[in-house]
Amino acid sequence: MTPTLLQMLAVTVGGAIGGVARFWLSGIVARRFGETFPWGTLVVNVSGAAAIGVLAGLLLAPETHAVGDWPTWAGLVIGILGSYTTVSSFSLQTLALVRANQPGQALGNVVASLALCLAAATLGYAGALSLWGG
Fold first, then answer.
1. Quick one: how far is CA 35 from the chain centroid?
2. Hey, how many other C-beta atoms are within 10 angstroms of the C-beta on 104?
3. What CA–CA distance (Å, rounded) separates 40 from 113?
4. b/e code 75-88 from CB counts within 10 Å (16+ = b)
5. What angle do CA 35, 124, 75 make, to 5 degrees?
6. Which listed residue, of 37, 61, 69, 121, carries a Cα 20 to 30 Å from 111's Cα?
7. Is 85 labeled as ligand-binding?
8. Residue 57 to residue 104: CA distance in whole angstroms
9. Per-residue pLDDT for the chain (134 aa), expressed as one digit of tens each?
10. How many CB atoms lie within 10 A of CB 50?
């Protein structure tokens, strides 16, 4: 499917919103809990995973009988959440922990990120279906 101008605009605007939201929230979390462990990135990625689960349940799940609105999906998921969540920061911060001779924290970051993000997406999806899907 070739992206439409409306989809590209939705991704552009959503990307700006998501990037600013990530910068803001990860900064708040880092200042509150410290920067020796990437808590800000973890919170952002887990909350983003929960949000994408909810949106998938609302917009894509066959159980909801909702028609996926592609400009809406493009703006919210690809734009906002694609810019809000961050695999690149997660990767770099994990590498920094390894290079700082903290392999236990690096492994903890990988395990916690994977487990919590998968759980958040699953719970978000199930919650959306439970509340709105029938």
1. 20
2. 9
3. 12
4. bbbbbbbbbbbbee
5. 80
6. 61
7. yes
8. 35
9. 677 899 899 999 999 999 999 999 999 999 999 999 999 999 999 999 999 999 998 888 776 655 556 788 889 999 999 999 999 999 999 999 999 999 999 999 999 999 999 999 999 999 999 998 65
10. 20
Query: Strands (DSSP E) along the chain, which ranges?
Result: none
- Do residues 130 and 64 make contact, with C-beta atoms less than 8 angstroms apart? no
Please tell me the predicted confidence (pLDDT) of residue 3. Answer: 78
Q: What distance lies between CA 40 and its chain's CA centroid?
A: 12
What are the sequence ranges of the domains in the chain? 5-133
Question: For residue 8, what are its two tokens?
Answer: 């590209």
Query: What pLDDT sits at residue 58?
Result: 87
Instruction: Specify the amino acid at residue 38.
Output: P
Query: Is 82 a known ligand-binding residue?
Result: yes
